[in-house]
Amino acid sequence: MSLMVCNVHFTQQPEKVVYVSNALMKVLNLSGKKSIHLRFGKVSTPATMKPIKKSGKHLYLTSGLRNTIRIPKSGNVHILNAQTDEVQIGPLIGVLSDAAVRTLTSPFGSRTEFIKSLLREGNKKGYFFAFAPRDINWQDDTVLGFFLNESGGWSRKTVPLPDVIYNRLPSRRAETGSTIATLRERFIKRKIPFFNWSFFNKSDVYELLKDDEEANQFVPESIMGPSSEKMKEMLDKHKFVYYKPTAGSLGNGIYRLTHHPKKGYFARYRAKGSNVLLRFSNFNSLMRMLQARHGRSLRNYVIQQGIRLIEIDHCPIDFRFHMHKNGNNEWVVVGIGAKKAGKGSVTTHIKNGGQLLTPEQALNKSFGLRANEVLERAKEISISLAESIEKNYPHLLGELGFDIGIDEDEQVWMFEANAKPGRSIFKHPSLRKEGRASLIHIIDHCMYLSKFRRGES
To answer: How many domains does the chain have?
Structure first.
């Protein structure tokens, strides 16, 4: 297998001919051949090959070839020959997303700027584009993609189905239903690597790790769809618990429940933009309130052991660990943000009054000179947890977000894992470098999955 960068040019001849410079023919071991198969994305076509005398590595495609394989632009690109009779140009990488309202300037809603940044960085290594499910034409296996033009705006171009797909569908609602299920199965049938498969529910992660003793020591005791008897048992055992919807996000619908033997039961939650604290004289009154507010949907709740986290100014601190697969298919920690809960808030989410800090700011307050040692151990545990989840998960993963807590005894706890984590931590001025590193890791993992990588054998 040979992988290199060459300069692709376009010519106007209608026939299917590819002109190859002598230097390129030599490194691709094509000398003496009369024809090859030229591949771009998931389309491959036979082409007559003719050598040309030109210094450097150059490939000239006639309009007949270009119209068949639909290469969107000329210039320096990667070229790969994994087989002696096939030369592949690329890689062609698709970013899958969508928006309820699609405009010319913002086709992917609030994710548009992130996708632009990803494409801008990715185009240095391949052909990166974005698309929504509605942009696929399954009749001829093509996509009407959104490409960045030189001025930073969007241009629409039809290309073959890509070599790799990075899934950033924006919500659980957007990726549920038979249409998306069929779409994913079609990608698998065509052997197109597709990551990340879907959002996790909280129950998914606990189920994946339930038989993994190594990982389970870092997961608080959690029970899906608990009965009222089991909830009371958990409260008596742990004194406080978190009660949260399995498919929730951004802290919506979460309760912190506390039992003080002499004072009664307390429920802390957020409603209509404000923090609420209610006291109940007995457990049954607490349960009646929860059932009145949520009814049958309580069957989709999980109860989780409360952990006494480290605090600043009596406000709990937790951490978002943003994990990526790198170009060698290994898990690494790319960014860490510390989140300080707002006064009286049940969660550390920024929109609920939380404050974003660097991990050093958060840990130095609690552990002083030991802060770096505690952080390094948390990183090692996060990598181990990512490996455990991936080992037990049936689909491709390339990115994870962990909500991590550390207690005063330096014990590390993983509360949640997100398969398509948000990027709010990278808004902190001290984490902008990590934000760019996150983009590069996504791109490098796409390159790995496409096989357009150095060292491939």
So the answer is: 4
